[in-house]
Amino acid sequence: MDLTYAQEGKEYIIREIATDDEELDSFLFTLGCYSGEPVTVVSRTRNGCVISVKDGRYNIDHQLASAILI
Amino acid sequence: MRIAFAGNPNSGKTTMYNALTGRNERVGNWAGVTVEKKEAAIKKNYCAGGEELVAVDLPGAYSMSPFTSEESITSSYVRNERPDVIINIVDATNLSRSLFFTTQLLELGVPVVVALNKSDINEKKGTSIDSVALSDQLGCPVVNTVSTSACGLEEVVQAAVSLKGKSQKAPYVQTGVDLTDKHEVEKADRRRFEFVNRIVPKVETRRTLTKERNVQDRIDNILTNPVIGLIIFAGVMFLVFQISQAWAGPWFADLLTGRIDAFGEAVGGWMESSSPFLQSLVVDGIIGGVGAVIGFLPLVMVMYFLIALLEDCGYMARATVVLDPIFKKVGLSGKSVIPFIIGTGCAIPGVMACRTIRNERERRATAMLTSFMPCGAKLPVIALFAGAFFADASWVGTLMYFVGIFLILACALLVNTLAGYKVRKSYFIIELPEYKTPSLIRAFYSMCGRGWAYIVKAGTIILVCNTLVQIMQSFNWQLQVVEEGMENTSILASVAGPFAYLLIPIVGFHAWQLAAAAVTGFIAKENVVGTLAVCYGISNFINTDELALMDGAGSSVAAVFGLTKAAALAYLMFNLFTPPCFAAIGAMNSEMKSAKWLWGGIGLQLGVGYAAGFLVYQIGTLAATGTVGGGFVPGLTAVLAMAAVIIYLIRRTNRRLAAEYELESNSASRSAA
């Protein structure tokens, strides 16, 4: 499943970043958001969600959330 | 000796750089404030004796492999320019991410000092980092710092100086990687992150984990709520404009203009014996024109102060989250918000801030639209017209900002239609920095820095322009002094005259003074105020009641200009939404990197400014008097012609897209066959 279905507050391990946008893939990598790494959805809004990766907080939209498979 | 400042975005590099060098570069609590390399000498009290130290502030980067233009500035600088020492500013609250870049810097052979910045936030959260152990692991000095309160800076500089000429041993070396093979590179990067992941638990103990929900997340929930967040954003911006233009700003301005007037009178007194031309050049042209512009300085400074507070507290990142869905609908991204908000200070840094937008089309469109947000230089123009024609009604100022936002959204739609924008997947991600109490002192410094720049501009460009305007107004082409009542024969009147015809559909009559002001406005928007002050011989625009009292009843600024309310509003909007000053156009050029986009942008701005002015004047006049204003037919023709050009261009784009689509489907069906 992808991050849009993730339970709030529960830690998941990223399985895959499903995108053909290589630049985005590499950018997420430098943030520490890549397969094998833990990710937590801290909260959810109507337009996206707030995730915690490594020790950073990011707001991402639904499109990106659905590209992060867990 | 050169010391480069490198580190992740929003780790506090520029704050440290400002503290060390005494400069006043823009800082803000979000990722991507600095987009260019900056250099300055470090203050002597940080480096007792010895040689001069030059600090080089670099844009933030997450890794040595660049994705954005500002990241590539950083990696190419540290790689090719070989600074003597690199100070790697590490966000101590996010060690696990930051050390990835640190290990890359350590491989370059240039000595590195790690500054563990934001250590105060860590203390508050109960996170402790064993800097000695970290130093052992990395093989470089590690210093705890808090750049917002200048703690630990001396130690960092000393550590950097002591490393000069030494080499750097890397704790982790990436070997034998074929950089052209994407998978190989990724594997190597994974190993690097694994190395970092092994170090972090050895040196860091956390009482609270980042993934846990905290108070800040609850605040975020409200501020980024699609409805409430939007209302809060509108409220915050309204307050910024209201406080600077209606409450605190004018109060300070009143104090200032009295002095400027008194100074002008005093100088007039000293010069009584000199020639009337010289006297009016100095008193009306220079002191009057520049004084009129300086008179609005308090309003501008109050606004700069408030914006600095906003930038410092961490709200900006949340504002981009709220606005992203709206901006996405018109084909921009939430990141476009930052250029627009910075643009309320000055369009040039606003346009430069577009660099952080990854998508090229979004970046160019944002650069094109940034100047629709009235900047600090346009604020005096707004305040002048609000004061003179609308009894200081504060809605005029706020309205102009919201009209600006409306125009941005409408024009973004138009630009995307013209550019043949096809809906594509665009992802949005923004780091949410920790909130912090904004520092009044730093906001004050930032305000003074920008206020000083405003004064310098008034004392140079504006002064020169006003002097020229005064001279051109005083003489006719035979170089004789223009007599009273014969102002229409002056050089200025005949030069500005042709432009004034173009303005008839906006102001209702032929006024070369207004045309001259609009034209000098392209050099700097404050010139609109300065030129009007010189042309109409009024220096105090702030306290217009006083003027009416001084010159007797009826002689208000409004009467001198001879504009109706509708015409005043129209002329104001024309000046606000036409192309910005030349400097901002230059910035647009360097960010867009395309002559087609640049000229398209200028054309769009001219069209929008003209159409907005025309519509406001004509509709306003129709509503007030029941008939349309002067120059209706030519104005309408011009606006319709512009509309026709746009429709033609849209059709052409649609045809092109249809052709492309056909080609694609043809080739698809061929390959299927």
Summarize model confidence as the mean pLDDT of chain B.
89
| Count of runs of 4 or more consecutive helical residues of chain B | 27
Give the strand order, joined by hyphens, for the main sheet of chain A.
1-3-4-5
Subunit organisation of the chains: heterodimer
What is the CA-CA span between the terminal residues of chain B? Answer: 67 Å
Q: Identify the most extensive interface between protein chains.
A: A-B, 39 and 39 residues
| Secondary-structure element pattern of chain A, one letter each | EEHEEEHE
Taken together, the total number of domains of chain A comes to 1
Rg estimate of chain B, integer Å: 28 Å
What fraction of residues of chain B sit in β-strands? 5-15%
Estimate the strand proportion of chain A.
35-45%
**Overall geometry of chain A:** globular
Question: How would you characterize the overall build of this protein?
Answer:
The complex is a heterodimer of chains A (70) and B (673). Helix content of chain A is 20%, strand content 37%. With 70 residues, chain A is α+β, with helices and mostly antiparallel strands. Chain A has one domain: Ferrous iron transport protein A (FeoA) (SH3 type barrels, Roll), CATH 2.30.30. In chain A, β4 (48-53) and β5 form a beta hairpin. By secondary structure, chain B is mainly alpha-helical. Chain B folds into two domains: 2-205, 3-Layer(aba) Sandwich (Rossmann fold), CATH 3.40.50.300; 229-630, no CATH class. In chain B, α15 (360-369) packs across α26 (595-625) and α16 (379-389) crosses α17 (394-418). Chain B is globular and about 85 Å long. Classes of the chains: A alpha+beta (70), B mainly alpha (673). The A-B interface holds A 9, 11, 19, 21-24, 26-32, 34, 36-38, 40, 42-43, 45-48, 50, 52-61, 63-64, 67 and B 62-63, 65, 67, 93-97, 100-101, 182, 186, 189-190, 193, 210-213, 217, 220-221, 224-226, 317, 321, 324-325, 358, 425-432.
